[in-house]
Amino acid sequence: MERSPLQEIDVDAALRTILEGTATETGAEFFRALVKNLAEALGTHGAWVTEYFPESRRLRALSFWLGDRWLDGWEMVVDGTPCERVIDDRCLIHIPDNLLDIYGDDPDVRAMGAASYMGMPLLDLDGAILGHLAVLDMRPMPAEPRAQTLFQIFAARAGAELRRLRAETQVLEREQKLGRLVGSAMDAIIELDSHLAITQMNPAAERVFGCGAGAMIGETFSHYLVPDAREKLARLIIELDGRPARQRSLWVAGGFHAIARDGASFEAEATLACFDVEREPFYTLILRNVNERIEAEHKIHSLTIETEYLRDEIKTLMGVDGIVGQSPTWLKILSEVQEVAATDATVLILGETGTGKEVIARSIHRASRRHNRPLIKVNCAAIPAALIESELFGHEAGAFTGATKKRDGRFAMAHGGTIFLDEVGELPFDLQSKLLRVLQEGEFEPVGSSQTRRVDVRVLAATNRDLQRSTGEGKFREDLYYRLNVFPIELPPLRERRGDVGVLAAAFAEKFAKSMGRPIEPLSADCIRRLEAYRWPGNVRELQNIIERAVITARDRKLNLDRALPESVGVLDVASTGGEAAAKRVRTSKELGDLERENIVAALEASGWKIAGANGAATLLGIKPTTLSSRMKALGIERKR
């Protein structure tokens, strides 16, 4: 009696053969390897795997090995075939012999002269029929439990691969639909990574910004926003990062002022959302150019004027915001900026409040090889001591109360670019060693993590303190001071560069006149004399605020300095000591400190001891609220109760 191939099979060897034949394959190649190795292992004449279409009750072969060849494009209706029972009964069907007697009307069975058959349905996770796996032979195929078990194992494996392929197809279809949806949207849709680099943008975004397909990918999106909008975006991202997972989207009140590739600016309504991919944050920004609507509402050409103003402002930012000047001292500083910008040297910018330390830092960054990477600013005095380490170096989820998720710090955000540590003299002493390590080694550990992170960051620092004296008092690390002081740039107060006051005032007046649409006559000699006679305790920032106030209150195209300049007795050298000679008198450090204290107290009393806000003392002085708080603390100024 002829022995069945299933009676002769070595199940372990067959299992190994099939596993080895399919281990490295997926998709169509997996199915080809499976049926060929299955037929060889079981010694059957043929083996095939199919996909089932219930609407038409048809089976289509994913792969069919018969004898010594492949049958491509094979499909059939299951009715009246041995496969019908596999599909309808949803279980393994084994016909050991007499296949022709049972299914003699099946043309395929008759043509092959098959004697035996075994088939197994391939099921989805919800029990739906996906297809089936089957073998047939010209000889009887008596029941052999081990062979049936082997067959069921590989039927399950075939089902898993078919499920994976269908899921992959569904994902691809969804991605294609989503791509068509995003691609056909009229609004600009932009995806940003944690460093605000552009990772994706739809055709509408390319049209809005005037670039070709893929031209902006990898660029920092902040470069396409005006300065105020950049800071606004940074604040919103910090806010989003701190929100719960289901609340990480927001409407951007007031939208953004953006800049196209050709320099044209436009107002855009915006929404911002945050999502995580493998624990890394990404951001979706949706913009709608509303210039046309604004023009229709206002019915004037104010947006055209504003566009020209902003384009000029961006091109001449180094001049308009305080770097303009013609005094020998200032020209020397500009030369130093150009010299150090081309290097990666650490720069320490020294000077009183309002002298333009941040503008110098931005100028160094823009002229450096890192200009295409972000400039990340940190105000060391504005961040609570308990949070500043996390702000600088990031933290892991659960590192402290309120740390619900992992967050990158400012050094990680500045990787490849520049970090500007403003008011670095206010940095807590116990954190200074960690900053020193970043400067020396380029590495740090986030709060709550033992994993060291490496960064490539250029450090610019600024302070209005005498750091050398602070080191002697034990308030600032000496080694950190020398590491920061590689290339010091000391900015003179405005009172020491009186020859630049008129040039700066004219630049500010032109800037604000354009932005407000108010024509202003050139500054008269008397205006310049009055401005030069003032002491400018708030330096360039105070000058900028006073000129803006003078433009707002201008009459007959002339600046109104009577409303703009402070009325406090003693703040004008001319008024207090009688003329130009007093303006040139050299004062002692104590006298300057007393004058600063008196001026701050006068501003506080004038504002009702309100520090921040439109009518606050900081606005009157032309300085930041955080800086004013820092100076009040340093000078021991407290409100009497």
Q: What is the share of helical residues?
A: 40-55%
Give the helix/strand class: alpha+beta
**So what's the overall shape?**
elongated
Give the strand content: 15-25%
Q: Count every beta strand, where a strand is a DSSP E run of 2 or more residues.
A: 20
Low-confidence sequence ranges: 298-322, 568-584
Q: Termini, distance in Å?
A: 115 Å
Task: Tell me, rounded to a whole number, the average pLDDT.
Answer: 83
Rg from Cα: 38 Å
Q: Helical segment tally?
A: 28
Largest sheet geometry: 7 strands, antiparallel
Q: Can you characterise this structure?
A:
- Residues 298-322 and 568-584 have low confidence and may be disordered.
- The longest helix has 40 residues, at 145-184.
- A hairpin with a 5-residue loop joins strand 6 and strand 7.
- The radius of gyration is 38 Å and the shape is elongated.
- It is α+β, with helices and mostly antiparallel strands and 641 residues long.
Provide tags for this entry:
7-stranded antiparallel β-sheet, single chain, 6-stranded antiparallel β-sheet, 28 helices, 641 residues
Question: How would you sum up this structure in a few lines?
Answer:
This protein has 641 residues and is of the alpha+beta class. 45% of the residues lie in helices and 17% in strands.
Question: What is the fold's blueprint, element by element?
Answer:
Layout: H1 5-8, H2 11-22, H3 27-42, E1 46-53, E2 58-66, E3 69-70, E4 75-77, H4 82-89, E5 93-95, H5 99-102, H6 107-112, E6 116-123, E7 129-137, H7 145-184, E8 188-192, E9 198-201, H8 203-209, H9 227-241, E10 249-251, E11 256-259, E12 265-277, E13 280-289, H10 291-298, H11 302-315, H12 317-323, H13 328-341, E14 347-350, H14 357-366, E15 375-379, H15 385-393, H16 410-413, E16 418-422, H17 429-441, E17 443-444, E18 453-454, E19 458-463, H18 467-472, H19 478-484, E20 487-490, H20 501-516, H21 525-533, H22 539-552, H23 561-564, H24 573-577, H25 580-583, H26 589-606, H27 617-621, H28 625-635
Parallel strand pairs: 14-19, 14-20, 15-16, 16-19
Antiparallel strand pairs: 1-2, 1-7, 2-3, 2-4, 5-6, 6-7, 8-9, 8-13, 10-12, 11-12, 12-13, 17-18
